Amino acid sequence: MVKRLEKFIKRFYLFFIFLFLYTPIFTLIVFSFNDSKSMGKWSGFTLKWYGELFKNERIIKALYFTILIAVLSSIIATIIGTFAAIGINKMKGFKKTILLNINYLPILNPDIVTGIALMSLFIFARGFMKLEFGFTTLLISHITFNIPYVILAVLPKLKQLPENITEAALDLGATPIYTLRKIILPQIKPGIFAGMLIAFTMSIDDFVISFFTAGPGVTNLSIEIFSMARRGIKPEINALSTLMFLTVLILLLIVNRKEFRHRKIDN
């Protein structure tokens, strides 16, 4: 009886947590099909906001820059962060501790401090590099704050590798490049993929840093939605958020299915 009660409490607690997390998302999805612009009342089922979404040039332009910046910054940050993690993992003692603490700072630092710091750097650099605020500054900013997350995602996988795996490969005649490409990188692939996904998500989600480093003619969804907040969020944003949520959900299901198949084959 006691075990059944404990089991029921655990399941109820888990259900309550997921209900608390996903109720706002389900509410948003439901009201993306609401015929009224107001989220205060239900006026009937409609798909017109999905049609209006693709007619809204400002939202489509913001979505284009959001996806483009997220893809480019996540790929570049993953490459830089992976090699940085490999280098840090090879270090020992005080130097490794210092570098790890330096890597933690941008993560623990408030976004507004990072945004203002990057904006000040670009203003200073504009004097002798002719660097104007726009796509380039926004991309550099996203790469900068994504790199620490990639490093933290890759490092645990590197620590799981046998300590002498590199030396063993070199003793068997492998070159350093071959060892890196054929032995190290395949072993840490899950960490690299996780780091890239985190970087991609952080880039799409960012507002504060983007607000301070974007220039005329370049915007992303977070900035665009913030500009709408004073006048009221348009129902097209609910439709766009629903599509983004469903896309992420489908991708997660595909990835998990592939991982399940690989585990089944390995076993």
From TrEMBL:
Major localisation: membrane
Coiled coil region boundaries: none
Domain ABC transmembrane type-1, first and last residues per copy: 63-255
Superkingdom: Bacteria
Stretches that traverse the bilayer: 12-33, 62-86, 107-129, 135-155, 191-212, 237-255
GO-annotated cellular components: plasma membrane
GO BP field: transmembrane transport
Keywords: Cell membrane, Membrane, Transmembrane, Transmembrane helix, Transport
UniProt entry tagged with the keyword GTP-binding: no
Cellular location(s): Cell membrane
InterPro entries: Bact_Polyamine_Transport, MetI-like, MetI-like_sf
UniProt xrefs under Gene3D superfamilies: MetI-like
Family: Belongs to the binding-protein-dependent transport system permease family. CysTW subfamily.
Protein name: Spermidine/putrescine transport system permease protein
Organism: Clostridium gasigenes
